[in-house]
Amino acid sequence: MGEFDLIARHFKRPVRRAALGVGDDCALLAPRPGMQLAVSSDMLVEGRHFFAGVDPDALGHKALAVNLSDLAACGAEPLAFTLALALPSADDAWLAAFARGLYGLADAHGCELVGGDTTRGPLNICITVFGEVPTGQALLRSGAQAGDDLYVSGTLGDARLALEALQGRVALPPALLAAARQRLERPTPRVALGQRLRGVASSAIDLSDGLLGDVGHVLRASGAGVRIQAKDASEWIAENAYGISASSLFDQDFLLQCVLSGGDDYELAFTAPAAARAKVAEAALQANTAVRCIGQIESAPGLRVVDATGRELTLPFLSFDHFA
Amino acid sequence: MGEFDLIARHFKRPVRRAALGVGDDCALLAPRPGMQLAVSSDMLVEGRHFFAGVDPDALGHKALAVNLSDLAACGAEPLAFTLALALPSADDAWLAAFARGLYGLADAHGCELVGGDTTRGPLNICITVFGEVPTGQALLRSGAQAGDDLYVSGTLGDARLALEALQGRVALPPALLAAARQRLERPTPRVALGQRLRGVASSAIDLSDGLLGDVGHVLRASGAGVRIQAKDASEWIAENAYGISASSLFDQDFLLQCVLSGGDDYELAFTAPAAARAKVAEAALQANTAVRCIGQIESAPGLRVVDATGRELTLPFLSFDHFA
């Protein structure tokens, strides 16, 4: 089966929102009047962002999820995406499963495939996603102000816990592994929350490389610092959701590392003025997504994590760096 | 040097046309009123689309050129692009040269880098490019009509001639090799011509996989066939530009194969009604790009190549298929 047949068979669909979809030299998008187009590209490499042999259905989901998470961090509504795919071989069953995972998430968000490229090569998935956001209302990294609260959505550290287990560095009970693995392989982009936070949050970012590293980007862009209260950080992990206490299995330092710098969370971190607490709670409720206040923005640059006694922790770990 | 430093050092620049560039979760684009956004993604893989060890300056040029060529085929004006890059190592000199080649072409077209991703992995370059086109005026593959002329811009087959030489299958005199290699490694996207053909051409496509294969896409999209006059096809190759007659070096079948199905030309093939011949000539003149009429669209489906005597040629070669 040739390249073009492959694309047509698994990925070509009529479009409803784009002016022109897959099948010509370009796709055509027409943002509605008063809207800007938010654009983000992420590249996923086998062995780096996912294990060789990972379930292609989960991979299809995750490849789009990490991009939708960027739209969420801007408060944008998903519109369309392009998919560029390098494959070591043209495996029909693999492509069918990948497309199933991809379209499952895409359809849930009304996000259409409008174009892309397929070629032979070491497995590599590059998605560019497009969303609409009212002009001037996108959430940026640069708006955090001293006195603002720092929030995170959902739970943190689960994906890293799964990664540590799958790589054989820790042992997890089967139920906990299954739940954590779901978070690693099928992250939930916080698209509804991001849109609800427009006009409420002063800054936002999505957590891909770990909380501390990603919040560091917000601090640099905003010219500010932060004090994070870590007295209950090990409870941020989704242990309650699993019905199993991860904190009874692991020492606090390990859990703290998963939570603060684990990476692959695809939750939102955002700031908002103290006066906006009720609006944040309302946005979380409307989006059906839990949020948690974990600290405050300060004018002094730097990232301070303090324990229950107010003592600053010295942290040996940093966020994940692909070239570290 | 860390991932984020690398990006900042070589690729981060202020934007002039986009609402927000590199450095946040998303870039923000705002097409002008009355404009649609044309979008195209291409992925280039080492060993497949370029040789290992190729000059990174040329690679930076080509990675963007193949995308700009898609915009040209739609008649769109380049606006911005994202760059996703997987690199086996973070080599500063390589990145500097790659960025030089990339920005050289980008700046010539006023096309801004607005975002992307960098990761470790087998060398892979995925660019998504954005252009503006007046609503409803994009050139499509689907508009060819029986009786239309079929044109190509520039010269065909040079890139394939260089590829054959670089892979040791043919020998070329140094001056011819240098000229052909320039066409392979630094193709010229026909951006100005594409824009001039709006309202003139009835269909267009850019030639990446070879003339016959790519024109085949136009025919399928348009529900038509074509008769191509190959009596002088071996003269379509840029021999005159080199001051050397390729036709004196090679047999006609080999040259015909380079021209008709060589690939990597990044010229435009387009159709226009016979009544529009003066307008086509005017567009070519304005864009300072040679065009050549090579055949006519017919209502009978299929692709017919005839020689000087009008006899239909039986062609053993097809267009390049990445999964063939």
From TrEMBL, chains A, B:
It catalyses: thiamine phosphate + ATP = thiamine diphosphate + ADP. Mg(2+) 3 binds at residues 25, 70, 206. Substrate binds at residues 49, 264, 320. It is an enzyme of class 2 (transferase). Mg(2+) 5 binds at residue 209. Keywords: ATP-binding, Kinase, Magnesium, Metal-binding, Nucleotide-binding, Thiamine biosynthesis, Transferase. InterPro entries: PurM-like_C_sf, PurM-like_N, PurM-like_N_sf, ThiL-like. HAMAP family: TMP_kinase. Reaction mechanism of ThiL seems to utilize a direct, inline transfer of the gamma-phosphate of ATP to TMP rather than a phosphorylated enzyme intermediate. This is Thiamine-monophosphate kinase. It comes from Simplicispira suum.
